[in-house]
Amino acid sequence: MECNESKELLGLYVTGSLTPAEAREMDRHLRSCPACAAERREVETTLAMLPFALEGPEPPARVRQALVDRLKEDSAPSAPSNVQRTFGLLFRPAFSFAFLALSLILLGGVVYEQRRFSRELAAANAEAEALRSQIEATRNQLAMIQSPATTMLTLKGQAPSPRSSGMVYWNRTQAVWMVSAWHLPAPPPGKAYELWFLTHGAPVKAGMLSCDEAGNAFAEVSIPGGVFPTNAAVSLEPAQGVDAPTGAIYLVSSS
Amino acid sequence: MTKPDERIPSLRFDAREEQALVSRLQGRRDQSAFLEVYDRYSRLVYHLARKILQNDQEAEEILQDVFWQFWKSLDRLDLNKGNLSSWLVTMARNRSIDYLRVQRRRRETLDDDVDETGQSLSARTEVESFAEKISVQKALAALTNTQRQALELAYYWGLSHQEISERLGEPLGTIKTRIRSALNELRNILGPPAKISTVQE
Fold first, then answer.
1. Which residue in A has a C-alpha nearest to residue B45's C-alpha?
2. Lowest CB count within 10 Å: A130, A199, B30, B98, which one?
């Protein structure tokens, strides 16, 4: 995308009015063009001025009071955790001595088993690296959920399993859905859950959902260009997936 | 560029006030700083949610939700990316439009007077005037009706350019041009955002 096209579409991009494919192209351009990225912030700020022109009554005082109550709950000290209690114990004199003795034994073990320790350390480092990647991925997901551009759809359990539920976090700028589902029954052999983009036309396949033993599933899917979802649904289908839903609907977002 | 009347107070915090508030919020999670922000901007968020949702009760829910999200996201606040009011307005708009789409309670017919409030709203109350309101109202008045209509359908109704094109019966290219020219006009009239909030300095 060139800068002149980006300038043409910036307003529609900021209001979330572009197609997912156009929005993705804009994303790519804005990441690589500091001038257009700066202009995007300026357009956002200009648009955010529009509500200043609105008029109306004062917000009800009960909303402020409700927030004050929530702040009080939020700042109330929580009970010490098991970890805090354990560490508190270690600093008592009797336990400190025992802890020191234990540390020396462990240190001796490390000296005599240096080679084994090195191998374990390497394994631990690899595990830590994997955890760091996982934390980074989780952080990105959390940032997406908290983004002002993200909205939510609530998935409700249908007749085959009313206790099932789920959420779709929908980032309109990045055209991405993060889908969580809970309490889905274990699919029978040869079957699996499939996610659907519900549109004004026919449903469009969005990928398979794999459940853990508790029936919980998570998936991150990109919304293809030309697909304009309004809602989401999950149905039980043949394990390899199908192009159009044929099985029972287990979850559907309310509208 | 429209200069706000210097005798009329600004609603927004100036840059120094905003920086000081954010320091208190991020440094020691100062609840009184949070309430200062609420007292200043709750009306803005509430009016925006009412405009989009056309419903007082739902607007109250959005108001509480937006400020609670603000409190929970303090660590992510970065004034280099936009000021406090911009952050709150963006959040309120997205939440309201999401709510609107889920509930599908918006009138299907296009109302010619897009500034009209719905019947589910309580009676209008005129509130005190402030510099930004006057500036933005003047800037909007300088747009053509078609520019204003396209801009409001995108901003307050959350419609895609395709939907705006279908509703107005105009080609897609015309809608894109109209919104771009409306924005350019607003930016020319309002000027760099920081200058609007300096009327108290």
1. A51
2. A130
If you measure CA to CA, which chain B residue comes closest to A155? B102
Contact A150, A168 (CB under 8 A): no
Hey, are the CB atoms on A148 and B87 less than 8 Å from each other? yes
In sequence order, which residues have a C-beta less than 8 Å from that of residue B104 and are 6 or more positions away?
A255
CA triple A32-B95-B172, angle to 5 deg? 60
Could you give the domains of chain B?
A: 10-106+113-120 (1.10.1740.10), 130-201 (1.10.10.10)
Which tokens go with A165? 């539920």
Q: Which residues of A touch B41 (CB under 8 A)?
A: none
Q: What is the pLDDT of residue A236?
A: 94
What tens digit of pLDDT does each residue of B137-182 get? Answer: 889 999 999 999 999 999 998 888 899 999 999 999 999 889 999 9
Q: Say if the ipTM goes beyond 0.90.
A: no
pLDDT given at position B201: 26
Residue B179: φ, ψ to 5°: -70, -40
